[in-house]
């Protein structure tokens, strides 16, 4: 398939849709309508084919044309994709005890480190 060189019929066949579907998608704003050079015919490219296939596939999956357009051709629409992940409960009292324990260990390590540095003659 040559880039930007498909007639509407070739474009529709490559995308797996009918010519009238292409025109319908254009009226709905789902597909751009390429410029028509003076005395010539409109030409479509690979990006147009990919977009038409995407829209058709999204429709087959149950998305409405409005949903497809509203969401910028992104199918991660919350109505269809469950993004909820339950969070593990946090026991605040246990976390506070852990913090106290870790702070005590840190103080102990700092005291040992200061002792080692003093033995080496390093002023801290």
Tally of separate helices = 5
Q: Tally the structural domains.
A: 2
The CATH class designation of the largest domain is: Mainly Alpha
User: Which structural class do the helices and strands define?
Assistant: mainly alpha
Morphology call: elongated
The total strand number stands at: 0
Give a brief outline of the structure.
The chain is mostly helical. It has five helices and no strands. The chain folds into two domains: 8-70, Multidrug-efflux Transporter Regulator, Chain: A, Domain 2; 88-124.
What is the strand and helix layout of this fold?
Blueprint: H1 8-15, H2 19-27, H3 46-60, H4 65-70, H5 92-119
Helix pairs in contact: 1-3
List the main descriptive attributes of the protein structure presented here:
elongated, mainly alpha, Multidrug-efflux Transporter Regulator, Chain: A, Domain 2, 124 residues, single chain
Could you explain the architecture of this structure?
The structure is a single chain. It is elongated, with a radius of gyration of 32 Å. The protein has 2 domains: about 10-70, Orthogonal Bundle (Multidrug-efflux Transporter Regulator, Chain: A, Domain 2); about 90-124. The protein is mainly α. The model has no long low-confidence stretch (mean pLDDT about 85). The protein is built from 5 helices and no strands. It is about 55% helix and about 0% strand. The relative contact order is 0.10. Helix 1 (about 10-15) crosses helix 3.
């Amino acid at each position: 398939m040559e880039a930007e060189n498909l007639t509407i019929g070739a474009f529709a066949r490559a995308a797996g849709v009918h010519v009238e579907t292409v025109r319908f998608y254009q009226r709905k704003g789902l597909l751009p309508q390429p410029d028509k050079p003076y005395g010539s015919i409109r030409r479509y490219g690979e990006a147009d084919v990919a977009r038409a296939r995407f829209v058709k596939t999204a429709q087959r999956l149950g998305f409405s044309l409005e949903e497809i357009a509203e969401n910028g051709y992104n199918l991660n629409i919350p109505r269809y994709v469950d993004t909820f992940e339950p969070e593990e409960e946090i026991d605040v009292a246990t976390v506070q005890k852990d913090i106290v324990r870790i702070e005590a260990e840190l103080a102990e390590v700092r005291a040992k480190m200061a002792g080692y540095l003093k033995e080496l003659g390093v002023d801290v």
